[in-house]
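Dock zinc ion; give full complex structure.
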Amino acid sequence: MFLMSKWSVKWAMAASLIGFCTGQWGMAAQESVSLTISGEVSPLMAPVAGQLTALFYESYPRLIERFEKPDRSAPRHIRLVFDKGLTVPAYCSGAEIHVSVEWLTQHPEDVALLTHELTHAVQAYPPNGPSWMTEGIADYARLIYGPKVQPGWSLPARLTQKQSYRNSYRITARFLQWLDEKHPGTVDKLHRLMQEGTFKLEAFQTVTGKTADELWQECVADLAQRKAAP
Ligand SMILES: [Zn+2]
């Protein structure tokens, strides 16, 4: 469609420009990264497309630097597709990320979903690992490498015994954040095992000396004692 391709070209140009101007390339990834946007990008979506573009150049080099597999490069070029009629807010497949036009129309503040999806692009986990780890690490990365302020999205301040580190997404992410404070480097080690396809639950004990269940109990108790953030 002519209109779409015109916008696609415009946004590809804007993407290059913003990346160049913000100078993100020098600080993290050695090679430059790039983004093209296509799909149903109407003029109404232009502001959010611009924010996603800026966020891409902020987040992606840092995600590559921390999470890229040493012996297999993460994609340097990402295709972002604005999709109408998606049943989920977004998904990542290889180097292509689809975002829902309807979701972004209703939740234009949720641009950090891109950081979550970009994490999947770098993870490239083989399919045998547990999805709660995949999603937990993606939300953990969203917290750290997404915008400082993420309206409508945060990790829970506290966790309960009824929940579990297997609950995925933000709950697992909160557990991982706590875990990495207590045992620095643990998230990276677990991530690497996921990437190698050798992750097992016992890895928590191998890395920290405590089982996942013991760590979870400790995490719940520890967070319960912390004062609420001002
Ligand atoms: Zn995900």
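Observed: Residues 116, 120, 135, 138 surround zinc ion (CB under 6 Å).
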